[in-house]
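Possible regression after last week's pipeline update?

I re-ran a chain I had predicted before the update to compare outputs. Posting the input and the new output here so someone can diff against the archived version. Not blocking, just want to make sure nothing changed silently.
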Amino acid sequence: MLRVAPDPGSSPLAYASAATSAAEGVRDPADEPPPSPVAPPVGTAAPERDYAVPLPAWLRQSLQQLQPAGAETRQVDTEALVATAFDFAYQLHDGQFRASGEPYIVHPIAVAGLLRDIGASAAVIAAGFLHDVVEDTQVTPEEIEERFGEEVRALVEGVTKLGGIHFTNRTEAQAENLRRMFLAMASDIRVVLVKLADRLHNMRTLGALKPEKQQRIARETRDIYAPLANRLGIGRFKWELEDLAFKVLEPDSYRDVQQQVATKRSEREERLGATVQLLRDRLVAAGLQDCEVSGRPKHLYGIWSKMQRQQKAFHEIYDVAALRILCPSVESCYRALAVVHDIFRPIPGRFKDYIGLPKPNGYQSLHTAVIGRHRPIEVQIRTTEMHQVAEYGIAAHWKYKEGGSPAAGDTERFNWLRQLVDWQKDDGGEDSSDFLASIKEDLFDEEVFVFTPKGDVVGLRKGSTAVDFAFRIHSEVGNHCQGVRINDRLCPLATPLQNGDFVQVITAKNAHPSLDWLNFVATPTARNRIRGWYKRSHRDDNIQRGTEMLERELGRDGFDALLNGEAIARVARRCNLVGTEDLLAALGFGGVTLQQVLNRLREEVRLSTAAAAPAPTNEEVAAGVAAAQPRQAPHGHPSNSPILGLEGLEYRLGGCCSPLPGEAIVGTVALGNHGITIHRQDCANVPQVPVERRLPVRWNPLGEAQQRRYPVRLRIEVLDRVGVLKDILMRLSDHRINVSDARVRTSAGKPARIDLRVELLSATQLRTTMDQIRSMADVLDLCRTGIG
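New output (post-update):
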């Protein structure tokens, strides 16, 4: 009998912890991962094992075909690789459970089954079984390679989320995991097959998680993974991911559309049946008896999206179902199209030939809309192979190649992916929010298709210009773009491209991007490339500006020795920069503030001076705390104090980090009469303070902290134009944000820099305010700086 139960010796608390951790894809750090079992060599049978879960027939067959243990090892075949990977994963996940209470191994089995259904190779299916073992157990990538080969290891590593790294917020963690996945896809795009199968099964079993977690996962699925499946042509995954996310995010709308589709089903099936039979008879009469005609329902999210986009009710949407004709050859596709247009009247403007002009993701089909039996109907005509590619995308594309592996050059078809990865490597990691926004924008459906001079098709977002086209071709083409010919006519770079345009970019060695291009480019790739070029090309100017700022503050005497000293190098490393030049460039550009550099430099000099001195005694620390006590408590009763944990002690908010309610904070005690300073826990100055001089404090959710406003300084780099400061101040005023100070610095031919001191209630209001400013077209860069 199959056993599906936790270890009887485990406590209910341990069971719940393991179930929750497994459902999230991350083991509880408090749990000791099971030791790595010793797996038999690939190609031989595992010891007879009582698998306590139901196994699909295809997997049972693979296990039965393995050689008896101890027999002479034969050449590794696909069945052996798949079966051995399952057995290894089964042992590793033994004792782990999902939030639903099921053994965790049911998830890898389901993922591998989905990969098998779309025709993935044995290495990809094996990676489906093993995709969680590095993250959830003590097995290392090296062990995966030793047992299953380099190919399987690379796929597993590409899917594994980042572990053991601390992130300041969920957005940063999400962005870093997506960066890792896209970089792995650039090396082997099959990584995304495993990731999409993993996400699809998680979406199918989402009901066991808390509602807020369901919402977060479903939103990420709708915004990133479903569009990603679409860009890779995997319609089989795209439709279901969209519907499952729709069910969680819009439950009322989902039920309404589902009910209305079910109500009209019998009428629709009767109408479709009559049309299908009519088409079959006419195709046979035309000598196309090998063509297969069928009706297909449209998925619920697609119907609802069209209702929202066209502002129509359900009864006004005519294409909730469509006809599909599968033909044996391309020639028969066009002959079938002639038959359709002979029977029914075609609707003008609704015919699209994706066979002669395939989509960039490889999709091919003939689309037409005709007046059927008293109402319009959509018809798709394609070959059987085209249908496989439409359903399974890149997996079907490789299925027709030797060995089922990607051929050299296949990833060239996914130019958008290469552009995104190139941006990450250069300067795309600075802002997690920008990176996520770029991914979401870049995964939307491409709506404009233009041609290169050689006749290659390039897909771009609607509204794209020649500059977007240039950067899509290659970053160097964009960096040296000087002009453009559209359909053999010289046109302005800002000219929007139309479907079918032939575009030729004119380049010159001395040409370079202009910040004015940011006013009309439509793709995140182009925007990020223009900004990145500006930062790199003005490095020398930024270094000079940063040097002058520092010299003005510290004086000329000994300045050269300071720049070549170890203290300034340590300050650079504390700012996550490589060396002194990078620190000066960041200072000149506004990446770090002058006050931050000065504070850290003084701290480094003080630490160097006091290196030989003994550490402060407990009595000295106590004296420092005592010195911080005021003669009269300034904040009244502790229950009304903005900060809890100080017991009436005098304190001040650190100007280096300007903490806000809602942010994790810590108190630091200064020796002498300097009192207590409150810092954000992630402030760069906190690690320099000995642990014995730190105080655990937190914001009082019931105190006057919730009514007070706190100063925060923002540094904004903008296109230098008349009225830009006014526009920013008006945007802040509309949201009732008080600006207590505003300073503008301009330089001919360069962006303007605006320093604003705003007064805010909380960290949440800060994030909202920064998002509002960052969304303005003229804003190039935005960061939070210290008050000083």
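Follow-up from reviewer: compared with the archived run. Residues 621 and 692 are 8 Å apart (CA to CA). Marking as no regression found.
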